[in-house]
Design goal:
Layout (H helix, E strand, L loop, with lengths): L2 E5 L6 E7 L9 H11 L8 H4 L2 E7 L1 E2 L2 E2 L4 E7 H5 L1 H6 L20 H8 L5 H7 L4 H16 L4 E9 L2 E2 L11 H6 L7 H16 L6 E8 L15 H10 L4 E6 L2 H4 L11 E4 L4 E4 L7 E2 L2 E2 L4 E7 L11 E3 L6 E3 L10 H24 L4 H19 L1
Antiparallel strand pairs: 1-2, 2-6, 3-6, 4-5, 7-8, 7-9, 9-15, 10-15, 11-12, 13-14, 16-17
Helix pairs in contact: 1-7, 7-12, 10-12, 12-13
């Protein structure tokens, strides 16, 4: 099965990715991964770091002549800001020493205080550097690889922003993969142009006040085969795995599969997807997507739908949140690091990543295969077996 490990700090020399469990023979280039990572820097309301932080990738191991070897894939992502400024050479030096300016005015809503208490630190930077959303660059690199693997069995994944602050997009029209380029061209990665304009206005208003905004993204996975996940154990349910993966993204505080929260207020007669036999495709189909393509912890073969809600960022350009200075115990306002007004559009790309890693892992579990050719062959045989069973 796939196993992802990341290492590195926000202003350290580099982030490191180790992805274990990939089959051999997956064609892979640095340029493909960098293209996906470029999408993570999209979105109106991003801070200045996105304009000069270049994700410079090096494939360290697991790839030879453009193809995976079946051994662990190792990727290094240099933090160009560390190389641009001597400040970070001192602040983030691995050599023995101490910082001259400890950060002690901890930010409400961030990992600062809880992390300091957990590990016994006196400087919030010992926590925030790893807790930073910069770590998601490593996830997106791994997710680009997972997406490439899934593409061999016809699975494609995208995302779009459906809410920014109080501005919510119309969901009457569901985007498809052919709409992804248009979505990425939107300043807020929203499929509904009128709502996108309203979202931009909300970002402008928050920026003027030195404040931040949260929002909601929807992840859609097309071509997901029947049978990923399982009903037999709590830790094998695909919706549980997706929820954990999406909730692990920095600042995400809510996850739903399909119309999870909305259907909770309905009667059962109006809360489930009717099933019919589609003679043209010789398969069972659902007439709606209330369940988001998952029933009983198992993918149904329909479009997989998941949503993630991101809280407003805890670091404000005009700090106003009341806090305590952990060194003096005096009341204060939280310290300021360079920040975004919102990172919701970028979070959608990270959410695609996490969904891709979960689906690729479960596909590997179900279909197996030491090589991509074997993986694809097994997936095709499984699809044929399902079709024969239902005919």
């Amino acid at each position: 099965m796939l196993r992802l490990l990341t290492a590195g700090e926000s202003h350290g020399q580099a982030l490191v990715v180790v992805l274990e469990g990939l089959p051999a023979g997956l064609e892979l280039t640095v340029e493909e991964i960098q293209e996906e990572m470029g999408r993570r820097r999209l979105g109106y309301g991003r801070g200045p770091r996105q304009r000069f932080e270049v994700d410079e990738l090096t494939l360290i191991g697991g790839v030879r002549h453009g193809r995976t070897l079946g051994s662990p894939l190792a990727i290094e992502i240099k933090n160009t800001e560390w190389f641009r400024s001597d400040k970070w050479h001192e602040e983030m030096s691995p050599a023995p020493g101490a910082t001259q300016d400890a950060l002690t005015k901890v930010r409400p809503g961030h990992a600062d205080l809880a992390g300091m208490q957990k590990y016994g630190f006196g400087d919030a930077r010992d926590v925030l550097e790893r807790a930073s959303a910069r770590e998601t660059a490593a996830r997106v690199a791994a997710g680009a690889v997972a997406k490439k693997l899934l593409s061999h069995i016809g699975v494609e994944i995208m995302s779009h922003v459906i809410q920014m602050g109080s501005a919510r997009a119309s969901l009457e029209a569901v985007p498809t993969m052919s709409d992804l380029a248009t979505i990425d061209e939107s300043p807020v990665r929203c499929f509904d142009p009128a709502s996108a304009d309203a979202m931009v206005e909300q970002i402008k208003a928050a920026a003027k006040d030195g404040d931040s905004l949260g929002g909601v993204v929807e992840v859609l996975a097309f071509g997901v085969p029947v049978g990923l996940g399982s009903h037999v154990h709590w830790d094998r349910k695909i919706d549980g795995l997706l929820a954990q993966a999406l909730m692990s993204i920095q600042a995400v505080k809510g996850v739903e599969i399909g119309d999870g929260f909305e259907v909770a207020g309905r009667r059962g007669s109006d809360a489930h997807d009717a099933i019919h036999w589609d003679a043209e495709s010789s398969s069972y189909r659902r007439r709606s997507s209330l369940a988001g393509g998952v029933e009983g912890g198992i993918t149904s073969g329909e479009v997989l739908v998941a949503r993630a809600a991101m809280k407003p960022l805890a670091t404000l350009n005009v700090p106003t949140l009341e806090t305590v200075d952990t060194a003096t115990k005096e009341s204060s306002v939280s310290f300021k690091e360079r920040t975004d007004v919102t990172a919701v559009p970028a979070m959608g790309v990270v959410a695609e990543t996490m969904a891709a890693l979960v689906l690729a892992d479960e596909a590997q579990r179900k279909f197996g295969g030491d090589s991509v050719a074997e993986f694809v062959r097994n997936a095709e045989a499984a699809a044929e077996a399902v079709a024969e069973q239902m005919s």
